[in-house]
Specification:
This protein folds into three domains: 3-74; 106-169, Roll (SH3 type barrels); 176-273, Alpha-Beta Plaits, CATH 3.30.70.100. The protein has eight helices and eight strands. It has helices at 3-12, 15-38, 46-71, 73-76, 80-93, 95-110, 191-223, 257-273; strands at 118-121, 124-131, 135-141, 150-158, 167-169, 176-185, 234-239, 244-253.
Length: 298
């Protein structure tokens, strides 16, 4: 068999198209690898480089599929009915996978969240570190670790989740959160002095957050139908049976909530100690009363 006869045999059996598809596959993947090694490596921003790599991979596979359809287009017409029946069965068997792909499209174009956002999906709270076609990867926060700190566990969540339960995004349009400190103070303290002390500490520790949050909130008011809430520190108080509870409310960067709480407590403790007893913390006290003695006479 000569070279021309061998090629004719390959063409008659459709193997020439398979060889062409393999060459296209190898060529496209090599092109993507070359782009990553040369062009994408020069991108200094981690987020931009990540999105460029994801976009290149997606575009490469779309191109391979389209070229494959073009190469075998004349052979697909006779399989239309069989593919339709098989497709219905595959769609039923892979409905969760299809829902996850649809969820991926919704995440990309619907603005649910993006990489770097802090989210809560169901009972999982963490930072989004990767968005795949089927699953979203989250670096988890909390659980056995107190505060908004990583616990080291990586969670992969099916993208179909966005159609089933609410998606909580802490950093999409407003990168701040409101937080509160609750302080029990004895009734003997002057309320005006306590409020002034707490507001002074808040102004020094979180005042710059309030000013930045005010600008971001103005954008939110223009974008959404939402009230023009105050971002400045606020002190309210409630009298209980045992003490007056002062609540300090303030805005803070969502990623610095724990460290900001610590800084505020340190400052407040120092300022209260400087009042020389005019302001004191309150605490619950329990007094045990002696029981009565009962004498039983026979």
């Amino acid at each position: 068999m000569g070279l021309s006869d061998g090629w004719t045999w390959l063409r008659d059996h459709g193997l020439d198209r398979a060889v062409t598809l393999v060459l296209v596959l190898v060529g496209v993947l090599l092109l993507v690898r070359l782009l990553r090694a040369t062009l994408f490596r020069r991108i200094r921003d981690n987020s931009a480089r990540y999105h460029a790599n994801k976009a290149a991979s997606f575009a490469a596979w779309v191109l391979i599929v389209l070229l494959g359809i073009g190469i075998f287009s004349d052979r697909l017409s006779g399989l239309s009915v069989a593919l339709g029946v098989a497709g219905a069965g595959i769609a039923f068997a892979l409905q969760e996978v299809i829902a996850s792909v649809a969820g991926w499209m919704a995440v990309l174009f619907g603005g649910f969240y993006s990489t770097g956002d802090r989210v809560q999906l169901g009972g999982i709270k963490g930072d989004v570190i990767d968005i795949g076609v089927l699953r979203t990867t989250v670096m988890e926060l909390g659980q056995w670790v107190d505060g908004d700190l990583y616990n080291g566990r990586i969670v992969r969540i099916a993208n179909s989740f966005v159609f089933k339960e609410p998606v909580f995004n802490y950093s999409a349009d407003f990168p701040f959160v409101w937080d509160e400190l609750k302080l029990p103070i004895q009734f003997t303290a002057d309320p005006a002095e306590v409020k002034a002390l707490l507001l002074a500490a808040a102004e020094d520790i979180v005042g710059h957050y309030a000013r930045r949050a005010r600008e971001e909130w103005a954008v939110m008011v223009r974008k959404y139908l939402i009230e023009d809430a105050s971002t400045d520190p606020l002190v309210s108080l409630v009298a209980t049976d045992n003490w007056v509870q002062y609540v300090l409310r303030y805005t803070v960067d969502l990623r610095l909530r724990r460290s900001t709480q610590s800084a505020l407590f340190e400052r407040i403790l120092k300022d209260i100690a400087a009042t020389e007893g005019r302001i004191k913390f309150a605490s619950s006290t329990v007094q045990l009363a002696p029981g009565s003695v009962v004498k039983v006479e026979e």
